[in-house]
């Protein structure tokens, strides 16, 4: 209770002190030399070197000038007064250069941000095609490579007869097996199917996946072309053997030997001697 009474008694005294302090006015300082210095510090004017000099009979009589800009002033003051214009806010001042550089950096930051955003968006888009779980949904696969690479999946992994090898007959298959061609074709087929399986099951960038698709397609076309050539050659050889076997008059006599050039000329002259 006593503390409350003391606080109440002090409150009027504080109010009186505030009221009395408000009656005193603060005198504003307006020094022309300080104003001139402020002008030099910004952009208005490089000059107005207050305080001004005063002379009497050629003698400097202004003590303030002598101690600020004159002979009695520090060397740094005289160098400042006689030096170049170093206003930071002049058209080519340091501060304006900093503002311009800051603006340039802001524009560069916007470009970098836009580029990084583009890279990020592209990365997000490519990530959907990176994993092998989404390869079946790729538009290019659906429109082209699925149809072009389908014969690889339909071709048997290990063909055992002429039907699976897409040959004409069993005799052609036996001929290729005897010469070792079937074994080599099987090795090429294994490489093609392995590359196709890797392109479909491995995680890789979308571009690399389609490069593997294209390489697999080229190898498959070469394989089919080579298989067709072997098939045609073997069939032609088999047909020719059958013709010789069925028509023995086409066969050469066992004792036949090629004639010499002299004998050929002699035979020709005997054949045509009655016509000329």
From TrEMBL:
Tell me the leader sequence span.
Answer: 1-21
Keywords, ordered alphabetically: Signal
Protein name, per record: DUF5045 domain-containing protein
Q: Which domain of life is it from?
A: Bacteria
């Amino acid at each position: 209770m006593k503390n409350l009474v003391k606080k109440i008694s002090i409150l009027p005294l504080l109010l009186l002190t505030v009221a009395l302090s408000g009656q005193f006015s603060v005198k504003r300082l307006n020094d022309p030399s300080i104003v001139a210095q402020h002008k030099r510090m910004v952009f208005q004017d490089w000059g107005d070197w207050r305080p001004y000099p005063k002379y009497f009979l050629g003698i400097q009589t202004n003590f303030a000038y002598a101690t600020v800009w004159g002979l009695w002033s520090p060397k740094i003051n005289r160098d400042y007064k006689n030096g170049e214009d170093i206003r930071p806010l002049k058209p080519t001042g340091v501060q304006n250069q900093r503002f311009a550089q800051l603006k340039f950096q802001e524009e560069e930051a916007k470009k970098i941000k836009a580029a990084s955003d583009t890279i990020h968006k592209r990365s997000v888009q490519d990530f959907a095609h990176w994993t092998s779980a989404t390869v079946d949904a790729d538009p290019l696969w659906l429109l082209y490579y699925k149809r072009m690479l389908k014969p690889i999946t339909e071709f048997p992994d290990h063909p055992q007869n002429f039907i699976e090898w897409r040959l004409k007959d069993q005799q052609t298959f036996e001929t290729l097996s005897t010469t070792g061609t079937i074994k080599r074709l099987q090795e090429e087929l294994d490489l093609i199917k392995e590359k196709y399986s890797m392109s479909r099951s491995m995680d890789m960038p979308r571009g690399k996946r389609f490069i593997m698709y294209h390489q697999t397609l080229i190898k498959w076309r070469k394989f089919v072309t080579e298989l067709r050539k072997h098939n045609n050659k073997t069939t032609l050889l088999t047909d020719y053997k059958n013709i010789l076997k069925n028509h023995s008059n086409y066969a050469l006599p066992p004792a036949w030997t090629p004639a010499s050039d002299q004998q050929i000329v002699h035979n020709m002259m005997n054949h045509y001697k009655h016509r000329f």
